[in-house]
Design goal:
Blueprint (H helix, E strand, L loop, with lengths): L1 H20 L34 E5 L16 E2 L1 E5 L12 E7 L4 H4 L3 E2 L6 E3 L2 E7 L5 E8 L3 E7 L6 E6 L7 E7 L4 E6 L16 E7 L5 E6 L2 E4 L3 E5 L1 E6 L6 E9 L3 H11 L3 H16 L2 E4 L2 H14 L4 E2 L5 E4 L4 E4 L3 E2 L3 H4 L3 H8 L4 H15 L19 H10 L7 H13 L25 H7 L10 H21 L3 H10 L7 E2 L4 E2 L21 H5 L6 H7 L3 H13 L23 H15 L15 H11 L1 E2 L7 E4 L6 E5 L15 E7 L7 E7 L2 E2 L4 E3 H5 L2 E8 L7
Parallel strand pairs: 29-33
Antiparallel strand pairs: 1-3, 2-5, 3-4, 4-10, 6-7, 7-8, 8-9, 9-18, 10-17, 11-12, 11-16, 12-13, 13-18, 14-15, 14-17, 19-28, 20-23, 21-22, 24-25, 26-27, 27-32, 28-29, 30-31, 30-33
């Protein structure tokens, strides 16, 4: 008998291990990572959507506005469930629609009602979300969500013996028009809104509308519309600010399904999106999960369950943006307010994402990259400049013109499928043509729209070789980032055979040196008359002089020489880290931990990368420190967990850090998973012998069996396939 029990236990263990090892990668993803915190946290949102989905579905715990996240893990009440286009905390939502289930008599109080919920009842996956809403009677309304790229399905499960209803918020802003129409015979509600929370930051868009079509599975018993909180029973149509509708169902109706299609083109296009994408709830959830598996499986790691949770959650965040903006061959452009044919993407957090997010997509989602680059070019053609931070049109937020970096990185890494000549024109305009009134406009952050912002202070930069602090805000940062963008535009010019432009821009890319003071060894603000400003801490974007001291990421050898050689450079780096000047929670310093590679002390890079990776990324809701900003914080982790990082987008180079896992594989052709050897088989293997939190130092490394001569990889080394093999140990090896 004991042998039988032991055998059964053994079989149970085998089955359990099989389940663990066969678990789909999307099950490791925790969309709640980064949702918990007071200030310095990821400020992510638990979106339900396929990769790069046009519309994201999420529970809403806070009233949406700029600088307020839609969801915070600390909150205890849910306001509704939203089809959202809000990409990041500091940006606005637009073209949204929100649904909220309620029970009982419909009145103004119900309209404002929120529901207590417990995280114990919450299930959050990239393809599915569910939660129990606790009513005033302590009964439960279970809500489930799944989504396609442009549509969502919500299932509301109401308690027994109640009168169920659903509120639909068509327009939220008190100064922005919306329209809603109830069609009882079709069990349908249609509508649109012109809501753009960032509208004051960009040009007017008279034709902008976020359209929606909602089809319910149950007939309406009663219905009405509302305006600014005032209910109008039995009315079926309304055009107003802050408007919506409600529909009630037969008493004791237990289950109500709402299928929602969205569009930026028209109601008819929303219906087409619905017909092409929506099946039953189960099939939609399954297909969206399979879409996530397709992308997540392109990076395979040998890791613990906890490590996989962190890694694949980070990958999830990197695969959300830029969002798809086209709808089956057509798209609305927020840059000329017209409908076009073609492919479009939107919501680029370029000041953040050029650093690692976009370089990562070249490896993990290469089929989307040509369309993303072409979309930036189209924005130039339709609006006059490529944007800095489209939401969904120009906002002027942040500095630099880092669409140049995204395009340059794609060009040097061999990406095809976009108009290279037009890309060159767009980048050259960024480098050469100042925006309106640039010579007199200080370009303060988040000021109301006046002109499309190009490079701030470009007029002065071209005239003086730097941006003067007495003429333009954030002058030092604008100078350094402008020099980097010059380098990037030079690469695009070179690819177009424009060697004169290349030479001119490469010379100009040294302009960062014009704001460096050798006597202090720091970057500093300079006046238009050539003198140094007495306030040495002014002129910087989101940081201090230390934040931008190593910002010339395109010319690190030149930066080392400027600072007096490698020894002095390392001393400066050491002061930066030991003095707690390095803030990983903001993006300008994301490449700083890798700079020791360039100065002959890669072991220091290995130590710092491992420490930041371990302490700043965790598998829980407060597991991310600093705004994720459309995937950049997550992309730093993904690269750094693999063991290398793109310090200078616009080149094909990666600096070696330290690998986290015994084995990781990058698949370029997933169908070739079983093919051997790895070299030229469509996969790149990273093997780290004896790696552990203690054994974080590289003792030796080979690429395809040959010793790696320097702590750097080239893009071709990766995409050609092969094996990068590390021997790891507990003590630094101070010579490469």
């Amino acid at each position: 008998m004991r042998k039988l029990v032991a055998f059964i236990c053994f079989l149970f263990l085998i089955i359990s291990f099989q389940k663990i090892f066969s678990q789909q990668l999307s099950e490791y993803v925790n969309p709640l990572i980064g949702t918990k915190g007071l200030f310095l946290y990821g400020r992510t949102t638990p979106f339900v959507t396929p990769p790069f989905g046009m519309t994201h579905w999420t529970p809403v715990t806070r009233k949406a506005r700029i600088a307020v996240p839609l969801y915070n893990y600390f909150d205890t009440r849910i306001r509704g469930f939203r089809a959202s286009h809000k990409p990041a905390m500091w940006m606005g939502d637009y073209g949204h629609v929100t649904l909220k289930p309620v029970i009982g008599y419909i009145n103004e109080k119900r309209l404002k009602q929120t529901f207590f919920f417990s995280h114990c009842s919450e299930v959050s996956k990239p393809y599915y979300y569910s939660v129990n809403l606790i009513t005033q009677k302590l009964s439960k309304i279970k809500t489930e969500m799944t989504a396609t790229s442009r549509c969502g399905i919500l299932m509301f499960h109401f308690p027994k013996n109640e009168s169920p209803s659903v509120f639909i918020e068509a327009s939220e802003l008190p100064d922005s028009n919306g329209w809603i129409k109830i069609i009882p015979e079709k069990k349908e509600i249609i509508g649109w809104n012109k809501d753009r929370q960032s509208a004051h930051l960009g040009p007017p868009l008279p034709n902008f509308k976020g359209y929606f079509v909602i089809q319910f599975g149950e007939a309406f018993e009663s219905f009405g519309v509302y305006e600014n909180g005032n209910l109008k029973s039995d009315s079926t149509e309304l055009t107003a600010n802050a408007c919506g509708a409600w529909v009630s169902f037969k008493k004791n109706t237990r289950d109500v399904e709402a299928r929602v299609a969205t569009s930026f083109i028209s109601i008819e296009q929303a219906r087409e999106n619905f017909n092409k994408e929506v099946q039953d709830f189960g099939n939609v959830a399954k297909e969206t999960q399979q879409e996530w598996e397709k992308y997540l499986s392109r990076l395979e790691i040998d890791a613990t369950k906890k490590q996989k949770g962190i890694f694949y959650s980070a990958m999830y965040h990197t695969l959300l943006f830029p969002r798809t903006f086209s709808e089956y061959g057509k798209y609305y452009s927020a840059f000329d307010d017209k409908i076009h044919t073609g492919v479009s993407y939107n919501d680029y957090s370029l000041w953040d994402t050029y650093r690692a997010e976009h370089p990562l997509l070249i490896l993990t989602a290469p089929e989307h990259v040509p369309g993303m680059v072409q979309s930036l070019v189209q924005m130039y053609q339709e609006g006059g400049y490529m944007p800095k931070w489209p939401n969904p049109t120009y906002t002027g937020i942040m500095i630099g013109t880092h669409a140049d970096a995204v395009i340059a990185d794609a060009v040097v890494k061999g990406v095809k499928g976009f108009d290279l000549q037009k890309a060159y024109e767009a980048c050259m305009k960024d480098a050469m043509v100042p925006s309106g009134n640039d010579s007199v406009n200080r370009w303060a952050d988040r000021t109301p729209f006046t002109f499309i912002e190009a490079r701030n202070g470009l007029y002065w930069y071209k005239k003086l070789g730097y941006v003067p602090v007495d003429k333009t805000n954030e002058s030092v940062s604008n100078t350094i980032e402008g020099a980097y963008d010059d380098f990037c535009v030079a690469q695009v010019a070179k690819a177009n055979g424009r060697i004169d432009d290349y030479d001119m821009l490469m010379k100009r890319s040294k302009n960062y040196q014009n704001v460096y003071i050798p006597a202090t060894g720091m970057m500093a603000p300079r006046n238009s008359d050539g003198t140094w400003n007495q306030d040495t801490r002014t002129g910087f974007t989101e940081g201090s002089p230390w934040t931008y001291l190593f910002g010339a990421q395109h010319d690190i050898p030149g930066l080392i020489e400027l600072m007096g050689g490698k020894e002095n450079f390392i001393k400066k780096l050491n002061r930066n880290f030991r003095g707690v000047h390095y803030i990983h929670m903001n993006e300008p310093g994301h490449h700083y931990t890798y700079l020791y590679d360039y100065a002959g002390q890669p072991w220091r890079t290995q130590k710092l990368v491992a420490l930041n990776r371990y302490f700043l990324y965790r598998n829980n809701p407060d597991g991310m420190d600093g705004d994720d900003d459309c995937g950049q914080m997550s992309a730093w982790y993904v690269f750094s967990a693999l063991g290398f990082y793109p310090v200078t987008p616009g080149t094909g180079d990666y600096a070696i850090g330290t690998p986290q896992f015994p084995k990781a594989t990058v698949y370029f052709n997933p169908e070739n998973r079983q093919q051997k050897p790895a070299y030229r088989s469509g996969r790149f293997e990273i093997i780290a012998h004896h790696v552990s939190p203690v054994n974080r130092y590289i003792q030796s490394v080979t690429l395809n069996g040959k010793k790696l001569p320097e702590p750097f990889l080239h893009h071709a080394d990766i995409i050609n396939g092969g094996t990068l093999e590390f021997e790891m140990g507990p003590r630094p090896k101070k010579s490469w």
